[in-house]
Amino acid sequence: MPLERLKTARQRTVGTKQTLKAVEKGQVEVVYVAQDADPHVINPLMKKCEEKAVPVIQIDTMEALGLACGIKVGSASAAILED
Questions:
Q1: Which residue, 1, 27, 29, 34, could crosslink 62 as a Cys pair with Cβ 3.0–4.6 Å?
Q2: What does the pLDDT read at residue 1?
């Protein structure tokens, strides 16, 4: 399951703003995006990931992504940072 890697990551971002900043700085190994997130929220992140050739893993729900990150609310996106 792709979320296991996110759960055990030593460094990660949670949320689209933090994740987008990390992608822009070239610090991201892989990005996770919830399929049920609002497109206007995640589209800038998706576009930046494409520009920077960062792999994107689609997750079914924001709730599942939030739980994998250890938070009690949903998250539109998250990322594993490079060591």
A1: 34
A2: 61
Query: In 3D, which of 35, 47, 40 has the Cα closest to residue 77?
Result: 35
The structure's pTM equals 0.94
Q: Residue 5: which of 24, 25, 32, 23 has the closest Cα?
A: 32
Q: What is the 3-state secondary structure (H, E, C) of 17-82?
A: HHHHHHHHCCCEEEEEEECCCCHHHHHHHHHHHHHHCCCEEEECCHHHHHHHCCCCCCCCEEEEEC
CA separation for the pair 54, 61 (Å, rounded): 21
| pLDDT confidence of residue 25 | 96
User: In whole angstroms, what is the distance from residue 70 CA to residue 66 CA?
Assistant: 6
| CATH number of the domain within which 46 lies | 3.30.1330.30
